[in-house]
Amino acid sequence: MKEYVIGFQHVGIPTKDMEASTKFYEAIGFDVMYETIDESNGAKVKFFKQKDLVFEVYESTDVTMTTGSIDHISIDVTDVEKVYEEINKMGMNNLNDEIHFLPFFEKGVRYFIIEGPNKEKIEFNQYV
């Protein structure tokens, strides 16, 4: 697995109020690096960046509004298919997820998600 991991990709944070989230993250020094609409559900999605720290903030009706409401952490990988194969070999695809594509950024991203031992979601992400 180590040969495929490039580094940290982003933290996924659901929001009920994109305007308030945008004002907050911009006030603490983040810039909007990318924004789109998730065509599967019509939700607004924004990626905020400050240096090498990236937050993906997306609209959701399932926001808990409690401590611990971060949805997932994402890891950059060089080859999402190879990582998917390794995760399956180790029996760690406990969500039975498949590789997905989203038309985010210039050419899109491919990713899949597993669940860690504390119910945390780990996303393996590759820019296309």
Automatic annotation (TrEMBL):
InterPro entries: Glyas_Bleomycin-R_OHBP_Dase (IPR029068), Glyas_Fos-R_dOase_dom (IPR004360), VOC_core (IPR037523)
Pfam families the UniProt entry points to: Glyoxalase
Domain VOC residues, every copy: 7-127
UniProt protein name: VOC family protein
Organism: Aequitasia blattaphilus
Lineage: Bacteria, Bacillati, Bacillota, Clostridia, Lachnospirales
